Amino acid sequence: MMSIHEIEDVKQLRSAPNDLPESLANVVEYRKSGLSLNHVVGCPLDCGYCVRHLFGNFEMKRPHLIMSDEQAVDELLRHWAFVPHRTPLQIFNRATDPFLPNVKPHLLNSLSLLDQRGLTNHILVITRWKVTPDDVAKLERLQNLKVTVLVTWSGINDVRLEPVDSEFAERSLKVLAEYKSRTKCILYWRPIIAGVNDTDHCIAAASALSQLADATVFTGLFHREQIRAHFRSSGVEDLYNDVPRRKILPREVEKRVLKKYTGAPLFRKTSCGVAFAHAEADYNGHFGITNICNICPQEQISLCASGHQIPLFEKVAPLVKSVGLNPSRIEIRAGNVIVEGSTEQQRYYVQHSLGFQVHDRSQPHLPGRHGRAEEGWE
After folding, report:
1. Does the pTM exceed 0.90?
2. Which end of the chain has less neighbouring CB within 10 Å, N or C?
3. Which CATH architecture has domain 4-280?
């Protein structure tokens, strides 16, 4: 890991190498919480569970610029799935941290370029680094975008898992609480790992920190084979048995969190916390999966209920067809639309267009598991 001094001293980004894998060279990707813009790659923070392991990018410690902010924003706005004022957006959440000193100018410039176009889309900015009063002042100048800063905090003190001290996130939460107004802030409590940071002490700390945020979102560990291999190479015994597609948060861990947590409103899903912060219905339509919502404040349940409408086949079929799926295989239920043979990008586009959950028949969301991996729920 680069030292704190080295991180702060790097002022200008290098150009990314020409041989980047396609997964990184493609700067726009559809993820569950929206279209994700990632024209900076590389990060020195070395969090052991980082998704950069999946892109073969974990060893690139210095951030690199793939293209200019102007080019990147143009690519985002030309993307087939982008809908002005509707599609939720994310920025620099795949291969770097947006508040690193040499990444931050590109974050703020890209947000400004989008805001100048009058776009009112949600945009999520996820960080575990330092947010300063000057950063907040610049975010507050944005007039149209609905900006939410999600401050990642875990309370993990094992440097093999997470070398970055949680104090940085705690300070960022305090700065945001003091200086923000229009900008929203989420305590992004993750990853909660059984036997690591699910103690009463960690839960109490999260409860206290949550008072600095508009809402808290909690979630488990994204545990793929590449991440497990990295942990093993660092001397960490396997945290879980499985390496599933979904995040792992065992039933007993969730029960402990829900019993002990005493802080600000707590949500299972990112979009639920963001929607609450902005006093809107959830753009992912989780309300249809009722057991997800049983911990939500009543005022949010009422908001989401008012926005929940089972879509008609005549509305769903053209959307499904437009992404290359077979409309004759659609099943419309009270809580979700079922499609077949879909990719995540196809599902998320339809889901955000409808504001209603869309699942693939081969990957069912089992009752009570909240879209999580099976480990710990069998």
Report:
1. yes
2. C
3. Alpha-Beta Barrel (3.20)
